[in-house]
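new request in #modeling-help
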Amino acid sequence: MRTQVGIVGAGPAGLMLSHLLHLCGIESIVLECRSRHYIENRVRAGVLEQGTVDLMIGTGVGERLQQQGLRHEGVWFSFGGRRHRIPLAELTGGRAITVYAQQEVVKDLIQARLGAGGQMVFEVDELSVQELDSIRPKIRYRHAGVAHEITCDFIAGCDGFHGVCRESAPEGVIAAYERVYPFAWLGILAEAAPTSEELIYTYHPRGFALFSMRSPQVTRLYLQCKPDEDLNEWPDDRVWEELCARMRTEDGWAPAVGPVLQKGVNGMRSFVIEPMQFGRLFLAGDAAHIVPPTGAKGLNLAISDVRVLSQAIEAFYKLGRGDLLEQYSAHCLRRIWKVQRFSWWMTSMLHLFPGADGFDHRRQLAELDYITTSRAGMTVLAENYVGLPME
Ligand code: FAD
Ligand code: PHB
């Protein structure tokens, strides 16, 4: 088999890349180790930046997003028993975030690719990438017990943090920069109508908590827990008790309690590789970087990477220009490091760190007070939260 761009991974990065390439007449094949059903139901991110929304609508995959997405023009920070609103749209010339589940983005992109006759293979096994420093790199894999090989012009490694592509570059050519945080998030999806129309990030002496949602009937909530937290120790009643203890405010606000539909624990890390390329292998999304979820940036960064990559690949085929491909990594990393900084800052400001003392606590409260009362402070938060420019 032969294709122009072989794409490993059908997450938001791989699928959006395949879609963008198709729109400029470039052929690709997407290879995914999980089933279509699995990836269309995997509960993950939920916050789309304005630029991600604009890209989806502008490239014809935004119909359901426009019908079902919840546009939020503000976000709340709760501390010391009170909630404070940051008016995102007012501070950023009308930009906002949209709550729309990652698995819905995945469904919309799969639908668009299949509708356009795109090639996707699910449930592949033993995938490997080869001859990366040649002009004809190859992807080998097995599907339904049969071995296959695809010869490509380029390979896009969009296979997430635990994928195989990043590890396939020879040792020493890619450097990694990392922070692992001494806590994790326990997240639940609950059948309970959201009691706030907008997200609430809570700083509390018992630890961080986050109120989010997926629809007018479904709430998404998170609480800071230990990195090795055992879910068996967290029956639903205990989760609700802890969430309410952290989130309830002086005016009596609290999340509505309801049946828990899903529960999980996710570790927190910051991770970036440099460069995001080796030979004809280009890494994008979680394969190249991880952000702690406090800034709601992972999915959005994956989308901004592949936007840059698709433009560079288009310039190669249409104009014979290789310079944009050469600059891919440096171009993406400038934005990635700003988003890393924001995600690290949000995480540091809002979580309880082991060993923190009264000084740390007061410093965190002062920072929260500043960013919710100073217009300059609020603007810094708002312009990062709705998303820095993609170009
Ligand atoms: P992935 O979505 O991980 O996709 C990679 C794909 O590659 C997967 O489908 C995987 O099965 C496949 N794959 C892996 N290995 C192989 C292989 N060897 N062969 C073939 N296929 C392979 N981000 C936000 O922006 N906002 C949020 O609110 C947010 N909340 C989050 C909450 C949670 C609980 C979690 C876990 C993450 C959250 N994120 C959030 C992060 C976001 O989900 C990721 O950043 C996003 O999925 C990255 O997309 P991706 O396409 O790069 O990688
Ligand atoms: C979510 O809705 O899943 C969500 C929202 C905001 C975050 C992280 C996750 O910062």
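bot summary: The first strand starts at residue 5 and ends at 8.
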